[in-house]
Amino acid sequence: MNKPQGILLVLSGPSGAGKGTICGRLLEKRDHMAYSVSCTTREPRKGEVDGKNYFFKTREEFEEMIKNGGLLEHASVYGNYYGTPRQYVLDKLNEGLDVVLEIDPQGALQVKKSYPDGVFVFIVPPSLDELSKRIYKRGTDAVDVIKRRLSAATSELAYASKYDYIVVNDEVERATDKVSKIIDVEHLKVGRTYYIVDEICQQKTTEQD
Q1: Based on the structure, what is the number of domains in the chain?
Q2: Does residue 62 fall inside a structural domain?
Q3: Which of 105, 133, 139, 148 is the most exposed place for a label (fewest CB within 10 A)?
Q4: Mean pLDDT of all residues in the chain?
């Protein structure tokens, strides 16, 4: 390794845990960070821009990406494909940018298999009562949908053991700072910094010559 490479940060957690808000805060607060843009076969909605909101693909193009290993993960949702483009993420990482991917636990586990060098952080609420309050406060879902989300939250929490870190989102700024510190620490790990030792050794050899 001859130059610092970015880190792929994978954020997951139950609906209402606040992972999307934390993701947005990280992008605002940290330089050299990019958001992972997903691919989809659904039609663009009004105002959506290809390459910014999503990479819009035909079904044939998407299935070719699956066949050729062009996706870190993918899923079919209500008849449309969604997935994380491998080359887009790798290009950003090779530019030295950290890439944040907000995704459900099933997708995160796919990413872990295809890119084990990622850093996997599970965002949890301080309690299920607080989670319930947050979801109801949104006011964006019907009552039956909210009940399904809360029921799913308990089973989703079981995925936390598969992650590298767990961060409690009791207060957004505090939780964001914790995740930011995780990124900083990960950048200091030997596997990501040994190039420094190589450079020092090369300098010594050059001076002796």
Answers
A1: 1
A2: no
A3: 139
A4: 90
Query: In the chain, where does DSSP find H-type helix?
Result: 19-29, 59-67, 86-94, 105-114, 128-138, 143-157, 172-187, 190-208
Whether 87 maps to a domain, the answer reads: no
Residue 91 forms part of a structural domain: no
Cα–Cα distances in angstroms (integers) from residue 13 to residues 131, 152, 154, 163, 195, in the given order = 11, 11, 11, 11, 34
Residue owning tokens 């990479």:
55
List the domain range (segments joined by +) for residue 107: 6-35+97-205
pTM of the model as a whole: 0.85
Q: Walk across the sheet containing 33-35 and list its strands.
A: 33-35, 98-102, 8-12, 119-124, 165-168
Confirm whether 68 is domain-assigned: no
CATH number at residue 173: 3.40.50.300
Surface-to-core class of residue 129, CB atoms within 10 Å of its CB (0-12 exposed, 13-18 middle, 19+ buried): exposed
Is residue 100 within 8 A of residue 120, CB to CB? The reply is no
Q: What is the pLDDT of residue 192?
A: 85
In contact, 169 and 18? CB cutoff 8 Å: yes
Count of residues in the chain: 209
Binding residues are: 13-20
How does pLDDT run across 190-205, given as a tens digit for each residue? 888 877 887 888 886 6
Q: Residue 84: name the closest of 96, 68, 102 by CA.
A: 102
**Residue 84 to residues 1, 132, 206: CA-CA distances in angstroms?**
25, 30, 43
Known binding positions for ATP? 13-20
